[in-house]
Amino acid sequence: MRGREMLTRARWAIAATAALLLLVPLRAEGAPEDPAAIPIPQLDTADPGKSVVARVKFSSRTSAIAERVKVSRSRAHTHFGDPPILALGLVDVDGQVIERINTWSPLWTYEEGGEEHVGLRDSGSASFIVPFSPALSTMTVTDVALAEDVLTIDLKPPLREFCLAHPEDSDCMEADLGVTSVAPDAPLFAVLGEPVTVTVASGVANTGPDGPVTAVVRQDLAAGDGLTATAGATVETTLAAGAAATLTREYTVTCTEAGTHTIDFTTSIKPERATVVDPDASDDTRTTRLTVDCAIPVTINIQPGSAENQVNLNGNGVVPVAVLTTTAGEYGNPVAFDATRIEAATLRFGSPAKLLASAGRPEAHGKIHAEKSVEPDEQTVDADKDAVTHYRYDVLQVSDTTACVVGRAAGLTFYGCDHVSVRS
Questions:
Q1: Is the dihedral angle over the CA atoms 80, 82, 83, 84 positive or is it negative?
Q2: pLDDT tens digits, residue range 304-329?
Protein backbone atom coordinates (compact mmCIF):
# COMPACT_ATOMS: atom_id res chain seq x y z
CA MET A 1 0.00 0.00 0.00
CA ARG A 2 1.36 3.40 -0.97
CA GLY A 3 2.29 5.87 1.80
CA ARG A 4 -0.29 8.50 0.87
CA GLU A 5 -3.07 5.94 0.65
CA MET A 6 -2.06 4.51 4.02
CA LEU A 7 -2.16 7.98 5.58
CA THR A 8 -5.56 8.69 4.06
CA ARG A 9 -7.04 5.43 5.26
CA ALA A 10 -5.58 5.90 8.71
CA ARG A 11 -7.19 9.32 8.99
CA TRP A 12 -10.55 8.00 7.87
CA ALA A 13 -10.25 5.18 10.39
CA ILE A 14 -9.48 7.59 13.20
CA ALA A 15 -12.32 9.87 12.17
CA ALA A 16 -14.77 6.98 11.91
CA THR A 17 -13.74 5.61 15.30
CA ALA A 18 -14.13 9.05 16.87
CA ALA A 19 -17.55 9.44 15.31
CA LEU A 20 -18.66 6.07 16.63
CA LEU A 21 -17.41 6.90 20.11
CA LEU A 22 -19.29 10.20 20.08
CA LEU A 23 -22.51 9.17 18.40
CA VAL A 24 -23.04 5.53 19.43
CA PRO A 25 -23.39 5.00 23.16
CA LEU A 26 -21.97 1.80 24.58
CA ARG A 27 -24.66 -0.82 24.87
CA ALA A 28 -25.47 -1.71 28.43
CA GLU A 29 -25.81 -5.36 29.31
CA GLY A 30 -29.28 -6.59 28.39
CA ALA A 31 -30.10 -3.52 26.25
CA PRO A 32 -31.86 -4.16 22.92
CA GLU A 33 -29.68 -4.26 19.81
CA ASP A 34 -32.33 -2.67 17.57
CA PRO A 35 -30.75 0.53 16.12
CA ALA A 36 -34.12 2.23 16.35
CA ALA A 37 -33.86 1.98 20.12
CA ILE A 38 -30.58 3.87 20.28
CA PRO A 39 -31.11 7.53 21.44
CA ILE A 40 -30.44 10.25 18.89
CA PRO A 41 -27.34 12.23 19.96
CA GLN A 42 -27.98 15.84 20.94
CA LEU A 43 -25.78 18.66 19.70
CA ASP A 44 -24.32 20.96 22.35
CA THR A 45 -25.75 24.27 21.13
CA ALA A 46 -24.53 26.01 24.30
CA ASP A 47 -20.86 25.28 23.53
CA PRO A 48 -19.10 28.59 24.34
CA GLY A 49 -16.16 27.76 22.12
CA LYS A 50 -15.28 30.15 19.28
CA SER A 51 -12.70 30.25 16.56
CA VAL A 52 -11.09 32.71 14.19
CA VAL A 53 -11.33 31.81 10.53
CA ALA A 54 -8.92 33.38 8.04
CA ARG A 55 -9.38 32.74 4.34
CA VAL A 56 -5.95 33.13 2.72
CA LYS A 57 -5.10 33.16 -0.99
CA PHE A 58 -1.56 32.12 -1.95
CA SER A 59 0.00 33.31 -5.22
CA SER A 60 3.24 31.49 -4.37
CA ARG A 61 4.91 29.86 -1.37
CA THR A 62 6.13 33.26 -0.18
CA SER A 63 3.26 35.53 -1.20
CA ALA A 64 -0.31 35.53 0.12
CA ILE A 65 -3.17 37.84 1.05
CA ALA A 66 -5.97 37.53 3.59
CA GLU A 67 -9.23 37.62 1.66
CA ARG A 68 -11.48 37.68 4.72
CA VAL A 69 -11.18 37.08 8.44
CA LYS A 70 -14.03 36.51 10.87
CA VAL A 71 -14.92 35.07 14.26
CA SER A 72 -16.99 31.89 14.16
CA ARG A 73 -19.19 30.72 17.02
CA SER A 74 -17.91 27.20 16.47
CA ARG A 75 -15.02 25.60 18.27
CA ALA A 76 -11.82 25.21 16.24
CA HIS A 77 -10.89 21.69 15.17
CA THR A 78 -7.68 20.16 16.40
CA HIS A 79 -4.47 20.44 14.42
CA PHE A 80 -2.94 17.53 16.30
CA GLY A 81 -0.94 15.40 13.90
CA ASP A 82 -0.78 18.00 11.12
CA PRO A 83 2.67 18.08 9.49
CA PRO A 84 4.95 21.13 9.85
CA ILE A 85 4.37 22.52 6.37
CA LEU A 86 2.97 25.86 7.48
CA ALA A 87 3.17 27.24 11.00
CA LEU A 88 0.48 29.57 12.35
CA GLY A 89 1.87 31.85 15.05
CA LEU A 90 -0.79 33.39 17.30
CA VAL A 91 0.45 36.54 19.07
CA ASP A 92 -1.29 38.50 21.83
CA VAL A 93 -1.55 42.25 22.34
CA ASP A 94 1.68 42.28 24.35
CA GLY A 95 3.64 40.65 21.54
CA GLN A 96 3.83 37.27 23.26
CA VAL A 97 3.27 34.08 21.30
CA ILE A 98 0.13 32.35 22.57
CA GLU A 99 0.42 29.27 20.39
CA ARG A 100 2.17 27.86 17.33
CA ILE A 101 0.11 25.50 15.18
CA ASN A 102 1.27 23.25 12.33
CA THR A 103 -1.06 22.97 9.34
CA TRP A 104 -1.28 21.89 5.70
CA SER A 105 -0.54 24.22 2.81
CA PRO A 106 -3.08 24.51 -0.02
CA LEU A 107 -0.16 24.44 -2.45
CA TRP A 108 0.85 20.90 -1.50
CA THR A 109 -0.81 18.16 -3.57
CA TYR A 110 -0.59 14.39 -3.94
CA GLU A 111 0.01 13.55 -7.58
CA GLU A 112 -0.48 10.16 -9.25
CA GLY A 113 0.61 8.82 -12.62
CA GLY A 114 3.92 7.13 -12.92
CA GLU A 115 5.61 7.33 -9.57
CA GLU A 116 3.33 8.87 -6.97
CA HIS A 117 4.78 11.98 -5.32
CA VAL A 118 3.95 15.23 -3.55
CA GLY A 119 3.76 18.26 -5.81
CA LEU A 120 3.29 22.00 -5.47
CA ARG A 121 0.62 24.14 -7.08
CA ASP A 122 1.42 27.64 -8.30
CA SER A 123 -1.45 29.09 -6.28
CA GLY A 124 -4.27 28.11 -3.99
CA SER A 125 -6.55 29.14 -1.14
CA ALA A 126 -7.17 27.78 2.33
CA SER A 127 -9.17 28.59 5.44
CA PHE A 128 -7.08 28.57 8.61
CA ILE A 129 -9.22 27.97 11.70
CA VAL A 130 -7.58 28.71 15.05
CA PRO A 131 -8.87 28.90 18.65
CA PHE A 132 -10.38 32.19 19.75
CA SER A 133 -8.73 34.22 22.51
CA PRO A 134 -9.78 37.71 23.66
CA ALA A 135 -6.08 38.62 23.81
CA LEU A 136 -5.38 37.84 20.15
CA SER A 137 -3.63 40.47 18.08
CA THR A 138 -2.04 38.92 15.00
CA MET A 139 -1.55 35.60 13.21
CA THR A 140 1.63 34.99 11.24
CA VAL A 141 1.75 32.33 8.51
CA THR A 142 5.25 30.87 8.13
CA ASP A 143 6.61 28.47 5.53
CA VAL A 144 8.48 26.04 7.78
CA ALA A 145 10.81 24.56 5.16
CA LEU A 146 11.83 27.99 3.88
CA ALA A 147 11.88 29.48 7.41
CA GLU A 148 10.16 32.53 5.94
CA ASP A 149 7.11 34.47 7.12
CA VAL A 150 4.56 34.61 4.32
CA LEU A 151 1.85 36.81 5.82
CA THR A 152 0.88 38.53 9.05
CA ILE A 153 -2.85 38.98 9.59
CA ASP A 154 -4.28 41.65 11.89
CA LEU A 155 -6.91 39.86 13.98
CA LYS A 156 -8.06 42.88 15.96
CA PRO A 157 -10.65 44.19 13.43
CA PRO A 158 -12.64 40.92 13.24
CA LEU A 159 -12.50 40.54 17.04
CA ARG A 160 -13.77 44.08 17.48
CA GLU A 161 -16.49 43.52 14.89
CA PHE A 162 -17.60 40.36 16.67
CA CYS A 163 -17.84 42.07 20.07
CA LEU A 164 -19.74 45.02 18.60
CA ALA A 165 -22.26 42.55 17.22
CA HIS A 166 -22.31 40.33 20.34
CA PRO A 167 -21.77 42.51 23.42
CA GLU A 168 -23.39 39.82 25.58
CA ASP A 169 -20.60 37.33 24.81
CA SER A 170 -18.61 36.38 27.89
CA ASP A 171 -15.30 37.19 26.14
CA CYS A 172 -16.41 40.73 25.29
CA MET A 173 -16.36 43.78 27.57
CA GLU A 174 -17.71 47.32 27.36
CA ALA A 175 -15.70 50.16 28.86
CA ASP A 176 -16.22 53.84 28.08
CA LEU A 177 -12.68 55.20 28.17
CA GLY A 178 -11.94 58.90 27.89
CA VAL A 179 -9.33 61.64 28.25
CA THR A 180 -10.56 64.11 30.85
CA SER A 181 -7.75 66.67 30.77
CA VAL A 182 -4.41 67.61 29.23
CA ALA A 183 -2.53 70.14 31.37
CA PRO A 184 0.98 71.31 30.36
CA ASP A 185 3.19 72.98 32.98
CA ALA A 186 5.97 75.10 31.46
CA PRO A 187 8.40 77.83 32.56
CA LEU A 188 7.32 81.44 32.09
CA PHE A 189 9.73 81.71 29.16
CA ALA A 190 12.52 79.79 27.45
CA VAL A 191 15.82 81.22 26.27
CA LEU A 192 16.81 80.74 22.66
CA GLY A 193 18.93 77.60 22.29
CA GLU A 194 18.57 76.50 25.93
CA PRO A 195 16.35 73.42 26.50
CA VAL A 196 13.57 73.61 29.08
CA THR A 197 11.34 70.91 30.55
CA VAL A 198 7.59 70.94 29.98
CA THR A 199 5.56 68.53 32.11
CA VAL A 200 2.17 67.42 30.81
CA ALA A 201 -0.41 65.79 33.10
CA SER A 202 -3.09 63.80 31.27
CA GLY A 203 -6.25 62.72 33.07
CA VAL A 204 -7.88 59.49 31.86
CA ALA A 205 -10.90 57.56 33.11
CA ASN A 206 -13.05 54.47 32.62
CA THR A 207 -16.73 55.19 33.23
CA GLY A 208 -17.62 51.53 32.75
CA PRO A 209 -19.71 49.55 32.88
CA ASP A 210 -16.98 46.88 32.74
CA GLY A 211 -13.53 46.74 34.23
CA PRO A 212 -10.77 46.49 34.98
CA VAL A 213 -9.41 46.96 31.47
CA THR A 214 -5.97 47.78 30.17
CA ALA A 215 -5.91 51.05 28.24
CA VAL A 216 -3.29 52.20 25.76
CA VAL A 217 -2.59 55.91 26.23
CA ARG A 218 -0.69 57.87 23.61
CA GLN A 219 0.83 61.17 24.79
CA ASP A 220 2.05 63.17 21.82
CA LEU A 221 2.85 66.69 20.68
CA ALA A 222 3.12 68.81 17.55
CA ALA A 223 5.66 71.62 17.85
CA GLY A 224 5.17 74.68 15.67
CA ASP A 225 7.86 76.59 13.81
CA GLY A 226 10.60 77.96 16.03
CA LEU A 227 10.59 75.01 18.44
CA THR A 228 11.99 71.51 18.68
CA ALA A 229 10.76 68.94 21.18
CA THR A 230 11.26 65.32 22.18
CA ALA A 231 8.79 62.83 20.76
CA GLY A 232 5.71 61.51 22.50
CA ALA A 233 5.26 58.03 23.92
CA THR A 234 2.72 55.28 24.45
CA VAL A 235 2.02 53.91 27.91
CA GLU A 236 -0.44 51.43 29.34
CA THR A 237 -2.59 51.76 32.44
CA THR A 238 -5.21 49.53 34.03
CA LEU A 239 -8.52 51.19 34.91
CA ALA A 240 -11.28 49.67 36.99
CA ALA A 241 -14.87 50.61 36.20
CA GLY A 242 -15.43 54.13 37.56
CA ALA A 243 -11.70 54.73 38.09
CA ALA A 244 -9.55 57.66 36.96
CA ALA A 245 -5.80 58.20 36.74
CA THR A 246 -3.32 60.97 35.95
CA LEU A 247 -0.36 60.19 33.71
CA THR A 248 2.56 62.62 33.47
CA ARG A 249 5.25 62.93 30.84
CA GLU A 250 8.18 65.31 30.56
CA TYR A 251 9.20 66.82 27.24
CA THR A 252 12.40 68.68 26.43
CA VAL A 253 11.59 71.81 24.42
CA THR A 254 14.16 74.08 22.76
CA CYS A 255 13.55 77.45 21.09
CA THR A 256 15.15 77.89 17.69
CA GLU A 257 13.59 81.26 16.88
CA ALA A 258 12.81 84.26 19.07
CA GLY A 259 9.19 85.17 19.68
CA THR A 260 6.08 83.29 20.76
CA HIS A 261 5.49 79.81 19.37
CA THR A 262 2.96 77.08 20.05
CA ILE A 263 2.94 73.39 20.88
CA ASP A 264 -0.17 71.21 20.70
CA PHE A 265 -0.16 68.44 23.30
CA THR A 266 -2.53 65.59 22.43
CA THR A 267 -3.50 62.59 24.56
CA SER A 268 -5.56 59.70 23.22
CA ILE A 269 -6.82 56.50 24.81
CA LYS A 270 -8.09 53.17 23.51
CA PRO A 271 -8.57 49.64 24.88
CA GLU A 272 -5.57 47.36 24.57
CA ARG A 273 -7.72 44.40 23.55
CA ALA A 274 -9.97 44.42 20.51
CA THR A 275 -12.60 42.56 22.55
CA VAL A 276 -13.09 45.61 24.79
CA VAL A 277 -15.64 47.89 23.13
CA ASP A 278 -15.49 51.63 23.81
CA PRO A 279 -19.05 52.77 23.00
CA ASP A 280 -18.30 56.52 22.89
CA ALA A 281 -15.21 57.62 20.97
CA SER A 282 -15.98 61.34 21.23
CA ASP A 283 -13.86 61.79 24.38
CA ASP A 284 -11.00 59.46 23.42
CA THR A 285 -8.74 62.33 22.31
CA ARG A 286 -8.05 65.75 23.80
CA THR A 287 -5.61 68.50 22.73
CA THR A 288 -4.32 71.51 24.65
CA ARG A 289 -2.22 74.28 23.07
CA LEU A 290 0.72 75.79 24.93
CA THR A 291 2.32 79.10 23.93
CA VAL A 292 6.08 79.29 24.53
CA ASP A 293 7.76 82.68 24.85
CA CYS A 294 11.24 82.28 23.34
CA ALA A 295 13.54 84.93 24.84
CA ILE A 296 16.69 86.40 23.29
CA PRO A 297 19.81 85.85 25.42
CA VAL A 298 21.54 89.14 26.29
CA THR A 299 24.57 90.21 28.29
CA ILE A 300 24.17 92.22 31.51
CA ASN A 301 26.72 93.71 33.87
CA ILE A 302 25.68 94.04 37.51
CA GLN A 303 27.38 97.00 39.24
CA PRO A 304 29.37 98.16 36.20
CA GLY A 305 33.00 98.78 37.17
CA SER A 306 32.97 96.19 39.97
CA ALA A 307 34.12 92.60 39.38
CA GLU A 308 32.81 91.31 42.72
CA ASN A 309 29.18 92.45 42.27
CA GLN A 310 28.63 92.56 46.02
CA VAL A 311 25.13 93.29 47.33
CA ASN A 312 24.61 94.10 51.00
CA LEU A 313 21.07 93.31 52.12
CA ASN A 314 21.43 95.69 55.09
CA GLY A 315 21.55 98.65 52.71
CA ASN A 316 18.50 100.51 51.45
CA GLY A 317 19.62 101.59 48.02
CA VAL A 318 19.37 100.10 44.56
CA VAL A 319 21.73 97.98 42.50
CA PRO A 320 22.68 99.26 39.03
CA VAL A 321 22.49 96.78 36.15
CA ALA A 322 23.65 97.56 32.61
CA VAL A 323 21.88 95.71 29.80
CA LEU A 324 24.38 95.82 26.93
CA THR A 325 23.81 96.51 23.25
CA THR A 326 25.54 93.71 21.31
CA THR A 327 26.01 92.47 17.78
CA ALA A 328 25.17 88.92 16.67
CA GLY A 329 27.88 86.63 18.00
CA GLU A 330 29.22 89.11 20.58
CA TYR A 331 29.63 87.38 23.94
CA GLY A 332 28.18 84.31 22.27
CA ASN A 333 24.74 85.86 21.81
CA PRO A 334 23.10 84.50 18.63
CA VAL A 335 20.97 87.59 17.92
CA ALA A 336 21.91 91.27 17.75
CA PHE A 337 20.29 93.33 20.53
CA ASP A 338 19.65 97.08 20.84
CA ALA A 339 19.29 97.81 24.57
CA THR A 340 18.03 101.33 23.96
CA ARG A 341 14.72 99.85 22.72
CA ILE A 342 13.93 98.22 26.05
CA GLU A 343 10.38 98.80 27.35
CA ALA A 344 11.13 99.90 30.93
CA ALA A 345 7.75 98.85 32.32
CA THR A 346 8.44 95.22 31.41
CA LEU A 347 11.74 94.97 33.29
CA ARG A 348 12.08 92.55 36.22
CA PHE A 349 15.15 91.70 38.34
CA GLY A 350 15.87 88.76 40.64
CA SER A 351 17.20 85.23 40.88
CA PRO A 352 16.32 82.85 38.01
CA ALA A 353 13.77 81.07 40.20
CA LYS A 354 12.09 84.34 41.19
CA LEU A 355 11.85 85.53 37.59
CA LEU A 356 10.37 82.25 36.38
CA ALA A 357 7.80 82.58 39.16
CA SER A 358 6.96 86.18 38.11
CA ALA A 359 8.29 87.49 41.44
CA GLY A 360 11.06 89.82 40.27
CA ARG A 361 11.49 93.48 41.17
CA PRO A 362 10.54 96.19 38.58
CA GLU A 363 12.91 98.97 37.48
CA ALA A 364 13.15 101.33 40.45
CA HIS A 365 12.74 104.56 38.43
CA GLY A 366 10.39 103.26 35.76
CA LYS A 367 12.80 104.16 32.98
CA ILE A 368 16.11 103.23 31.39
CA HIS A 369 19.24 105.34 31.14
CA ALA A 370 20.62 105.10 27.60
CA GLU A 371 24.36 105.59 28.01
CA LYS A 372 27.68 103.89 27.39
CA SER A 373 28.42 101.38 30.12
CA VAL A 374 31.47 99.41 31.16
CA GLU A 375 31.63 95.97 29.51
CA PRO A 376 31.90 92.74 31.57
CA ASP A 377 35.68 93.03 31.77
CA GLU A 378 34.93 96.08 33.94
CA GLN A 379 37.31 98.23 31.85
CA THR A 380 36.21 98.46 28.23
CA VAL A 381 33.65 100.98 27.06
CA ASP A 382 32.62 100.45 23.46
CA ALA A 383 30.82 102.82 21.09
CA ASP A 384 27.33 101.37 21.63
CA LYS A 385 24.79 102.97 23.90
CA ASP A 386 23.54 100.53 26.52
CA ALA A 387 20.67 100.64 28.99
CA VAL A 388 21.59 101.23 32.62
CA THR A 389 18.77 100.18 34.95
CA HIS A 390 18.28 100.10 38.74
CA TYR A 391 16.49 97.69 41.09
CA ARG A 392 15.84 97.24 44.75
CA TYR A 393 17.87 94.20 45.80
CA ASP A 394 15.69 92.93 48.65
CA VAL A 395 14.42 90.34 46.17
CA LEU A 396 17.76 88.53 46.57
CA GLN A 397 18.86 86.09 49.28
CA VAL A 398 22.27 85.22 50.72
CA SER A 399 22.12 81.85 48.95
CA ASP A 400 21.75 83.48 45.52
CA THR A 401 24.86 83.48 43.34
CA THR A 402 23.18 84.60 40.13
CA ALA A 403 20.86 87.53 39.41
CA CYS A 404 19.08 88.16 36.13
CA VAL A 405 17.01 90.67 34.20
CA VAL A 406 14.05 89.85 31.96
CA GLY A 407 12.01 92.28 29.87
CA ARG A 408 10.86 93.12 26.39
CA ALA A 409 12.44 95.16 23.60
CA ALA A 410 11.08 95.71 20.12
CA GLY A 411 8.30 93.21 20.80
CA LEU A 412 10.58 90.36 21.88
CA THR A 413 11.42 89.02 25.33
CA PHE A 414 15.08 89.09 26.41
CA TYR A 415 16.89 87.52 29.34
CA GLY A 416 20.39 87.92 30.79
CA CYS A 417 22.25 86.96 33.98
CA ASP A 418 25.43 87.84 35.88
CA HIS A 419 27.10 86.52 39.00
CA VAL A 420 26.39 88.21 42.34
CA SER A 421 27.72 88.03 45.90
CA VAL A 422 24.94 88.63 48.42
CA ARG A 423 25.73 89.48 52.06
CA SER A 424 23.39 90.03 54.97
A1: negative
A2: 999 999 988 887 789 999 999 999 99
Q: Is 410 left (phi over 0), alpha (psi -120 to 50) or beta?
A: left
Which residues, in sequence order, are CB contacts of 164 under 8 Å at separation 6+? 277
- Please check whether residues 124 and 205 belong to one and the same domain: no
Nearest to 232 by CA among 291, 184, 295: 184
pLDDT reported for residue 113: 62
Query: Among 56-70, 113-127, 320-334, 337-351, which stretch is predicted with the lowest mean pLDDT?
Result: 113-127
Inside any domain, residue 123: yes
Q: How many CA atoms lie within 13 A of 59 on its CB side?
A: 6
Residue 12 has pLDDT above 80, yes or no: no
CB burial of 403-412 (b: ≥16 within 10 Å; e: otherwise) equals bbbbbbbeeb
Query: What is the side-by-side order of every strand in the sheet holding 369-371?
Result: 300-302, 318-323, 386-392, 369-371
CATH of the domain at 244: 2.60.40.10
- Asked whether residue 22 is assigned to any structural domain, the reply reads no
Domain termination site, one of 249, 264, 294: 294
Neighbouring C-alpha atoms within 13 Å toward the C-beta of 155:
29
Task: Indicate the residue type of 89.
Answer: G
* Cis peptide bond N-terminal to 131, omega within 30: no
Reported for 59-65, long-range contacts at CB under 8 A and 24+ positions apart, including other chains, are 59/122, 59/123, 60/122, 60/123, 61/105, 61/107, 61/120, 61/143, 61/146, 61/150, 62/143, 62/146, 62/148, 62/150, 63/150, 64/141, 64/150, 64/151, 65/151
Strand-pairing partners, residue 184, are 200
Same domain, 276 and 195: yes
What is the rounded average pLDDT for all residues in the chain?
89
Q: Are residues 57 and 96 in the same domain?
A: yes
Q: What is the DSSP letter of 23?
A: H
pTM, entire model: 0.77
Does residue 28 sit within a domain? no
Average pLDDT over residues 132-159: 96
Whether the CA torsion 27, 31, 34, 39 is positive or negative: it is: negative
Domain housing 189: 173-294
